[in-house]
């Protein structure tokens, strides 16, 4: 019986980095974006874990616990998207491998390209959720954790932007239609709202300008 192949998120940090640096192609930018987003969520959970149970924060403990529960959902969704992104890329490779004279090739490439947009688009949504949760956590956790929440906000913004690149690089190769326009509009809306929110949060918590 052949050994079960490890999921990308089961690799050690070093193994993941080695795989990312290799010629394999997956994980790529999308998988890296999802992993970074999950780390942003993890920092939010850490801030909660170091707040819950402290007597001086007893009045917000229930709220912090709820934020942590939602944050953990975001974290695990983003981790799942590391592998989903890799799996979404494989049909695109198969489509491009079809002979150019094959009449089904063009449609196959379009379908696979639209499919490859789905995981990074989902990542963007989860990164937006992470930013909202980091904002909420910042108002309830210890000030000693301000730098960790600020780092989480900046990581979430970076992951959001990186995931958007993986959407736009695919939509730019597609013929324009309502689906493509809708995907791009959704991406623009998320970037326009949540990147500034994340940076503003980091600036507020860091107490100085965050470039």
TrEMBL record:
What's one Pfam family here?
FTCD_C
- Locate the transmembrane regions by residue number: none
Q: Do you know which InterPro entries this protein is assigned to?
A: Cyclodeamin/CycHdrlase (IPR007044), Formintransfe-cycloase-like_sf (IPR036178)
What region holds the Cyclodeaminase/cyclohydrolase domain?
A: 12-188
- SUPFAM superfamilies in the cross-refs: Methenyltetrahydrofolate cyclohydrolase-like
Q: What is this protein called?
A: Cyclodeaminase/cyclohydrolase family protein
Q: Source species, please? A: Thermophilibacter gallinarum
The organism that produces this protein has a lineage beginning with: Bacteria, Bacillati, Actinomycetota, Coriobacteriia, Coriobacteriales
């Amino acid at each position: 019986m052949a050994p079960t192949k490890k999921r990308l998120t089961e690799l050690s940090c070093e193994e993941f980095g080695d795989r990312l640096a290799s010629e394999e192609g997956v994980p790529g930018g999308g998988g890296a974006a999802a992993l970074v987003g999950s780390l942003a969520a993890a920092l939010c959970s850490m801030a909660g874990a170091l707040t819950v149970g402290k007597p001086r924060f007893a009045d917000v403990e229930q709220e912090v616990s709820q934020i942590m529960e939602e944050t953990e959902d975001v974290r695990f969704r983003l981790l799942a998207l590391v592998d989903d992104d890799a799996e979404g890329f494989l049909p695109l490779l198969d489509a491009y491998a079809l002979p150019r004279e094959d009449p089904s090739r063009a449609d196959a490439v379009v379908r696979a390209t639209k499919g490859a947009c789905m995981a990074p688009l989902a990542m963007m949504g989860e990164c937006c959720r992470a930013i909202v949760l980091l904002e909420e956590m910042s108002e309830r956790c210890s000030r000693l954790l301000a730098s960790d929440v600020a780092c989480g906000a900046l990581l979430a913004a970076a992951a959001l932007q990186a995931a958007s690149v993986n959407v736009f690089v695919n939509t730019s190769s597609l013929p324009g239609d309502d689906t493509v326009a809708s995907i791009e509009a959704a991406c623009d809306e998320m970037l326009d709202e949540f990147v500034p929110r994340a940076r503003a949060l980091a600036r507020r918590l860091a107490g100085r300008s965050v470039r």
